[in-house]
Amino acid sequence: MAEAGSEGGLGGRWVVFLSPVVWLLLVALAAGTWMWAGSFLRAAEKEGMIQRTQVAADFIRSYMTGIAARQRQDASKALADRTVSADRLEIFGGGLGYTSMIVLDRQGRALAIWPPRPELLGQDLTGSQPHVRVALLQDRIAVSNVFTSAVVPNQSLTAIAVPFATPQGQRIFSGGFIVADSPLGNYLREAIAPPGGYAYLVDRFGDVVATTRNPGAQVISLSRFAPQLAAALRQGSSGDYQRAGQEWHYTSASVWPDSWRLVIVAPHQRLYAEPDEEHRRFGVVLLVSALCGLVAAAALTYIAHRRWQGQQQLLRQDAQLRAFHAELELFAASISHDLRTPLTAMSTSAEVLAEHYPGQMSTEEALVFVRKIRSSATRMGDLITALLAFSQLQRGQIDRQPVDLATLTDQVWAKLARNRGERDIRFERADLPPCQGDSELLRQALATLLDNAIESTRDRPTARIGVGYEAGPEGFITYRIHDDGTGLDADQLKEVFTPFQRLRRTGTYQSVGMGLSLVQRIITRHRGRIWVESTPDGGTTFFFTLPTA
Q: Which residues does the UniProt record annotate as the domain Histidine kinase (predicted)?
């Protein structure tokens, strides 16, 4: 019995000894995990800032390239005469927001200058304008570094030089503008700069092109304006530095190769406010766990859950940034083409009126050009309305509720009665199962797809339009809308959901080709997908998936 008691006491002592050790190990493990969680949350915030900086740099490059491309096309029409007056140059560049402008021939000699500088006409200016020399010799768009203007006193400008062809040979147009006062400056201030931080555009010599701070009108180097930041940039493209006793984090991305660089800085206390608050709250939980010894497992579970949430958030942000970047490139190309067309029409008509009326043109002839200007202005308004609708759909919230898609389809079909007129259309609707979604957005999508079917069967004496469904992926239903009208060829199928692609006059935004693009955005925002199958003689079927109710 004594031996047994001795063994029991020994076992009890081991339990007393091991229990604190085990608990200390658990606390140490939890403390280490707590420290790791803080570093992980900060790293996630840094990575997000790097991605936002790269997306912003890509957008700036796309924006500048779009301006230059439009500038080249318009200059080949408006500045192609044998002689170009300063007044003509002022009219051409004023609408583009340029402060100073110059046109040179293929030898680099000045043909026209605004503001007027008669003493420089006929002189070779390539020596004092390096970006003009690059555009001339390499036949490509060239962007200058920031410089103090010789024709606009007390202003620092940046210029874009583009070569363009004329019947008299190649010419160069160079327009200088104040970046801080341009839409690009507004983008820096309103969209790029983080709360409490700053954004800088710096040229390859380290001079400030534009910033959300106020550097004054003269050219100033970043090393003078923000010396600590300039020194940090020489060490790496991203990192930390101190200024005025405060810690700052910066990221940078190249806008033009060997030229501009975008730099974004944010104070640690604002950048890491949310991660630090999360870290502090978790520390309180950990302290309570160490004192009571009852929530260690819960704390570990919480850490794992937070880590998974952080990873999922990073993946979602990455996907959203990539999709947004792709849309920016698509919009840049689409807007550059579609918005320029009515502007060019209005500009050309206005020039004809200015040159030939009164005196050389009758009132009836003048009215023709006035109607062209009004028509182009109306089209511009339609384009802007469509872009606003697309943007609002991107930002708006989805009110997900069970939706009776059968009843909704009947309501939409009844509302489209005016579009059908007296035509003989055989409409067939299956007993559609309900889905989960925003009823108003789905109503808009159905209206566009059914209106598209009505338009595509307009040449049929008796048309057939059917709405059905079939099994979809897990958790989704696949719906389909089929018509036996004129189908789409292979090239049209590739562009069917591209904004501003007018395959046929149909949809809510039939004049600008945004209807099917809006439908795709609506379905995508419901976590579904949409595709189309069609042949020129076999009709068209749109398929789309929606979550089950």
A: 334-549
